[in-house]
DNA sequence: TCTGGGGTCCTTTTCCTT
DNA sequence: TCTGAAGGAAAAGGACCC
């Protein structure tokens, strides 16, 4: 809705901020283990565990006294898995996110290896988001370490294009958590997201509409949120490398090459046009659990093992649904074969469910429809078409303690189906 | 010795009904 | 009874993101 203002009163300019925590996981770990500062540290590796004895010997408050030599190192890691993130010191060795653990171990065998501790990151995530909403209530969650904030109507949100408010938020987050972040403020989400990358770490970037040509167009297309490796390659094949190249293309040409929706979106993105609002609340669409095996498995040869994994995944999804108060109608499975090809099968039920047995049964039917003659490396179970329990006119889920639902196990028939 | 897990959204295909 | 068009829902796949 366009609002009307009295003559001489200017409408507030739309100011949208994108806030990105700096090296979030690694920074949280360094708060716990300050003795690792400056060392190559790698976080990740599927089944990495900090030695139980270590955690027992040192109380939570004494973790900083664990000697550096006592930490597990990459050299001793076995198995599959990838790096989730690495500290700057580790990156110096050529290690980066999504790299295989074994490759990383060759590059820097002495790097300290820490398990991913989502519980801890979520704790800090809640803390920094609480700080933000105290100051600016219109905030959109974009995962554990990112948010969009609508500065438009916040006191001070217009001063210096948003810089004053951004500074206040940075300072408040640092005081509350000890963590730093980078903030970009722009007329919309797309530009704000790009702006937050300009000045990392602990930086603030202000972008105005008039800066498009100078600050945005020279950038690689890939910097646009929504252009991934596939789109980048296709653009490059047409001689489009920078955002400016993209902006120079007629809208119609992009629509013809990339389809109606994506082509038009590309054109808008290049011209800095993005009207998406900052959404403060949203409902989940699906919940899933998946796991990559230590070795590739075969439906017939590894029947017992697969059956147990399959049952566990169904129980986990059911427990997730129950704990969060959802049911779902569409049950699906996902397989990743040894060649990394992915297949999915799903089936929609007449009635939504959060029951492990029902999920297991329906997922089993889905599994019957895929090629099980070949070995595969990953199995997943998904429930979609979610509905909130309290929106169905049913009593809300009992205040479930996590794990309570998970303890209700399915009698394992020994069969995959 | 490659390549995790949990999501969203979009497009295309398929199937069913009218 | 056959055929085709049209539209919707479900299914499958793929790109992308954190």
Question: Can you characterise this structure?
Answer:
This protein has helices at 24-32, 52-57, 88-91, 101-107, 118-135, 163-177, 189-195, 212-216, 229-237, 243-248, 251-258, 260-270, 303-324, 356-367; strands at 16-21, 41-44, 83-86, 112-114, 139-141, 146-150, 181-186, 204-206, 286-297, 326-337, 342-353, 376-388. With 417 residues, the chain is of the alpha+beta class. Helix 11 packs across helix 12 and helix 13 (303-324) packs across helix 14. It folds into four domains: 16-21 and 120-211, 2-Layer Sandwich (Alpha-Beta Plaits), CATH 3.30.70; 24-116, MutS, DNA mismatch repair protein, domain I, CATH 3.40.1170; 217-270, DNA polymerase, domain 1, CATH 1.10.150.20; 286-413, Dna Ligase, domain 1 (2-Layer Sandwich), CATH 3.30.1490. The chain starts with 15 loop residues before the first strand and ends in a 29-residue tail after the last strand. 33% of the residues lie in helices and 20% in strands. The protein has 14 helices and twelve strands. A hairpin with a 4-residue loop joins strand 5 (139-141) and strand 6. Strands 5-6-1-7-8 form a five-stranded mixed sheet, sandwiched between helices. Strands 9-12-10-11 form a four-stranded antiparallel sheet, with helices on one face. It has a three-stranded mixed sheet with strand order 3-2-4. The chain binds a DNA duplex (18 and 18 nucleotides) through residues 44-46, 80-84, 98-103, 105-106, 116, 142-146, 225-231, 259, 261-262, 284-292, 330, 332, 340, 342-348, 378, 380, 382.
């Amino acid at each position: 809705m366009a609002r009307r203002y009295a003559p001489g009163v200017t409408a507030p300019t739309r100011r949208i901020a994108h806030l990105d925590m700096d090296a979030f996981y690694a920074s949280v770990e360094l708060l716990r283990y300050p003795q690792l500062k400056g060392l190559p540290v790698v976080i990740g590796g599927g089944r990495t565990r900090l030695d139980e004895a270590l955690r027992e010997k040192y109380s939570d408050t004494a973790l900083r006294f664990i000697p550096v030599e006592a930490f597990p190192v990459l050299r001793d890691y076995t198995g599959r898995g990838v790096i989730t993130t690495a500290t700057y010191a580790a990156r110096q060795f050529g290690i980066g996110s999504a790299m295989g653990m074994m490759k990383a171990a060759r590059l820097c065998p002495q790097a300290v290896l820490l398990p991913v501790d989502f519980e801890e990151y979520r704790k800090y995530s809640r803390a920094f988001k609480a700080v933000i909403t105290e100051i600016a209530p219109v905030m959109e969650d974009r995962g554990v370490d990112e948010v969009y904030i609508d500065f438009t109507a916040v006191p001070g949100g217009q001063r210096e294009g948003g810089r004053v408010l951004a500074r206040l938020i940075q300072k408040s987050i640092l005081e509350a958590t000890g963590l730093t972040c980078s903030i970009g403020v722009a007329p919309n989400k797309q530009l704000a997201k790009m702006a937050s990358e300009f000045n990392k770490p602990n930086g603030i970037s202000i972008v105005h509409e008039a800066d498009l040509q100078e600050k945005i167009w020279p950038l690689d297309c890939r910097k646009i949120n929504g252009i991934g490796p596939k789109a980048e390659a296709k653009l490059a094949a047409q001689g489009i490398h920078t955002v400016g190249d993209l902006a120079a293309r007629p809208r119609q040409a992009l629509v013809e090459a990339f389809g109606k929706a994506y082509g038009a979106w590309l054109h808008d993105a290049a011209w800095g046009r993005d009207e998406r609002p900052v959404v403060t609340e949203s409902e989940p669409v699906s919940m899933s659990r998946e796991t990559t095996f230590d070795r590739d498995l075969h439906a017939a040869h590894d029947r017992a093992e697969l059956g147990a994994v399959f049952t566990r995944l169904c129980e986990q999804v059911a427990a997730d649904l129950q704990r969060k108060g959802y049911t779902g109608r569409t049950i699906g499975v996902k397989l990743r074969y040894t060649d990394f090809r992915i297949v999915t099968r799903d089936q929609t039920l007449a009635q939504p469910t959060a029951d492990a047995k029902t999920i297991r049964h329906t997922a089993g039917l889905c599994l019957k429809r895929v090629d099980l003659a070949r070995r595969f490396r990953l199995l997943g179970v998904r429930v979609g078409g979610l509905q909130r329990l309290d929106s169905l006119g049913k009593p809300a889920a009992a205040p479930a303690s996590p794990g309570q639902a998970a303890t209700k196990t399915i009698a394992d028939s020994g069969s995959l189906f």
